[in-house]
Amino acid sequence: MAENTQVDVSRLTFERAIEELETIVKRLEDGKVPLEESVTIYERGEALKRRCEELLRQAEARVDKITTDATGQSTGTAPLDVQ
After folding, report:
1. Residue 35 maps to a domain
2. Cα–Cα distance between 11 and 3 in angstroms, integer?
3. pTM of the predicted structure, to 2 decimals
4. Distance between CA 73 and CA 82 in Å, rounded?
5. Residue 59 lies in a domain
6. Of 68 and 41, which is predicted with more confidence?
7. Closest CA to 11 of 56, 55, 63, 62
8. Does residue 34 belong to any structural domain of this protein?
């Protein structure tokens, strides 16, 4: 785990960040981590959570909805309104 804390969270892919976050959650739930390390990895988990949320927001902003005509044929795309 120590080597993971050296990796800049802002450089992680969504998949890598979520994988590391899941590992942190499992370690904390196990309850066998010393207090100081628990605090440190919890803080890293918070940063990973923010990174995942940021990447999801970016992905949502890039998603387009497919527009169709009355017959159901695709006519193009338009920005997806996720609000």
Report:
1. yes
2. 15
3. 0.71
4. 23
5. yes
6. 41
7. 55
8. yes
Do residues 68 and 27 make contact, with C-beta atoms less than 8 angstroms apart? Answer: no
- Name the residue with tokens 């909805």: 65
Read off the pLDDT of residues 5-51 as tens digits, 9 standing for 90 and up: 578 999 999 999 999 999 999 999 999 999 999 999 999 999 999 99
Indicate the helix (H) or strand (E) that contains 59.
Answer: helix 35-62
Q: Could you tell me if residue 77 is inside a domain?
A: no
Amino acid at 17: A
Between 66 and 38, the higher pLDDT residue: 38
Counted domains in the chain: 1
Residues 6+ apart with CB under 8 A from 61: none
What's the CATH number where 30 sits?
1.10.287
CA pair distance 50, 5, nearest whole angstrom: 15
Provide the domain limits for residue 57.
9-71
Cα 65 to Cα 75: distance, rounded to the nearest angstrom: 11
